[in-house]
Structure prediction request, 221 residues.
Amino acid sequence: MVSPLTRAEALAADIEAMITERGLGPGDLIGTMEEFRDRSGFGRATISEAVRLLSDRGSVHIRPGRGGGLFVAEPNPVVRLRHTLLTVRREPTTVADAIAVRESLEPLIAADAARHRTSADVTALRRLVARLRKSTGDAERFLRANWALHERIAQISPNPLAKAVYQSMTRCIADLSTGAGATHPAGYLDERAEIHAELVEAIAAGDVDRTAAAVTRHRGP
Prediction:
């Protein structure tokens, strides 16, 4: 069963693609909430979450009331970068390409998280680790939980450009990896869950050196 968050992320991606395909510019109407509900078949809560995700990314803004709806936000460097990355994700590529870009940013993203995490961030990260541990019996569920954890870590970074590239590469890897049907030796996913747990605890402690060591272990040999 697809989770509400996964549905919202999928709808957000569809709306971003719609902006690009239609050539919409700043201030252009993308659609009303009712139109998105009719088109997608999703409920109000899922649509609201998708809009929140897009608003957080700086891609859209909402105008309430009569004549309102979802509009393309004014551009800024980060938004332009995200549109470029969305185009890159549509080009023929490999998981290895996206992983190479993401891994180059991983130490910066993790260090930022260790320096700037709040108690709310730590609570959210630990909750996602718990979800990861519960998913070790299902590789597909584990992958989704893994991507969600890394995206949440990236959200802590105050560096908008690094965050935009990192999150885009994470989503690219997730898109290309879904349904890959990979098999793992017994205990492998449990081990990976504990590696992620150590990364989160290092971030929670605000220990940059420990976080760097956790990132190295996360990458593996």
